[in-house]
Amino acid sequence: MTIDRMTRESLRQVLGPVDEPGPLRPAVEEEVACDGYVRRLVSYDVPAGRASAFVCVPDALTGTAPLVFCHHQHAGQFDLGKSEVCGLRGDPDQAYAAELAQRGFVTIAPDAIGFEDRNWTDGQNVTWFELSNRIVVGRTLLATCLQEISLALDYATTLPEADPDRIGFIGHSYGGRAALWAPAWDQRIRAAVSNCGCVPYRESFARDVGFQAEFVVPDFASENDLEDVIALAHQCQYLILATDDDRWSRGAASIRDRLDQRGTRHARVEIRAGGHDFPRTARSAAYEFLDETFQAAGPNRG
Question: Signal peptide location in the record (predicted)?
Answer without folding.
Answer: none
